[in-house]
From TrEMBL:
Keywords: Cell membrane, Disulfide bond, G-protein coupled receptor, Membrane, Receptor, Transducer, Transmembrane, Transmembrane helix. It comes from the Eukaryota. PANTHER family: G PROTEIN-COUPLED RECEPTOR 15-LIKE (PTHR45695:SF32), LEUCOKININ RECEPTOR-RELATED (PTHR45695). This is G-protein coupled receptors family 1 profile domain-containing protein. Residues 79-370 form the G-protein coupled receptors family 1 profile domain. Belongs to the G-protein coupled receptor 1 family. It is found in: Cell membrane. The chain crosses the membrane at residues 63-88, 100-120, 140-158, 179-198, 230-252, 309-328, 348-373. The keyword Disulfide bond applies. The keyword Plastid does not apply. One of its GO terms (biological process) is feeding behavior. It comes from Chiloscyllium punctatum. It is a multi-pass membrane protein. Gene3D superfamilies: Rhodopsin 7-helix transmembrane proteins.
Amino acid sequence: MNCTGLCLSTKVTNGYLDHTLHVSNLTAPILNGTPTAGGGTDSDDEFLQYIWREYLYPKLYEWVFIIGYIIVFVVALVGNILVCFAVWKNHHMQTVTNYFIVNLSLADILVIAICLPASLLVDITETWFFGQTFCKVIPYLQTVSVSVSVLTLSFIALDRWYAICHPLLFKSTANRARNSIVVIWIISLVIMIPQAVVMEQSSVIPELANKTLLFTVCDEQWGDDVYPKVYHVCFCVVTYVAPLSLMFLAYFQIFRKLWCKQIPGTSSVPLACKWKPRSALCSTHSQDGPSQRTFAAEIRQMRGRRKTAHMLMVVLLVFALCYLPISILNILKRVFGMFEHSDDRDTIYAWFTFSHWLVYANSAANPIIYNFLSGKFRQEFKAAFSCCFAGVQSHKNFKDQASSRSQK
């Protein structure tokens, strides 16, 4: 979960230290070599060529990751902006659940716009170029975004659980949702301060610190080995294991209510809801049944709640799957000290980079899920794209008309 500080320096710390003995053979002449007529040393070119060939120039699988990052960046940024615009534009979509979905999109926009470009550059070049200040700010913002996402999903699950399983205990309102969002951001900004405190910029080869930015890393610096172990175990439990366990439990109860039992808060019509086609979704056998109109409204309400619950369950499942690899790798590295002396540098790096990419891919997945599983979002997305294409076509027609008039 704490993937920024981990993944931004994974390629260097997991492989480079095993190769420093070879690199030091090249750095020694640079530090103590004979100046050439050009002002450098005899080994400057050799060293830089080695660095470019072995570390900086992207390998084939790194080009795949670069393309993947670009796709995620575009889809996530455009998709989440459309989500925010759709809810802001349409009053009928300004529901409690959609307020939380917008908050989730804002957290995704934050991490995509600020953290993803830095992560990609560092993953490929193995160097932190952004200085000490951003070494603290960017990992901090990434962990804040993770916390906001987890807490937002938790509040959504809690809201749906109350609305469907215990509708008389708590009434959710838009004002309460907005207040909850403010609380989510305050909590996230406060509890992630330790992440900013421990992040430090350093050079893998101190002798080169004053000569080049190459192999400057941004990583956690702890005073004692026990502190990172405690911190990362607590981080994983608090931001992944515990909330996801509670959310899955909540959605399990919601599933039982919506798919197997009568919906609370409606009339006492016994709805025997089983696995049936939509045309035969539920059956009723009440002797004094309600009017046809009331019964149809109940069926529409149940179908609407089912669709919403289905979409939110998919969002939660995708979130859990996208964050699972980095959570496991983080614990293995930070708590158990694995990968420090591994000989298979490229494989380890590829796994870390892929798991890091999955974290960002989750931000792109959410708008896609909304598009496929929510008719209202799909309609608004289509309207937005139609408006854009219509504007482009109108501009093109205007230019064509102006060009034809000028030719006359």
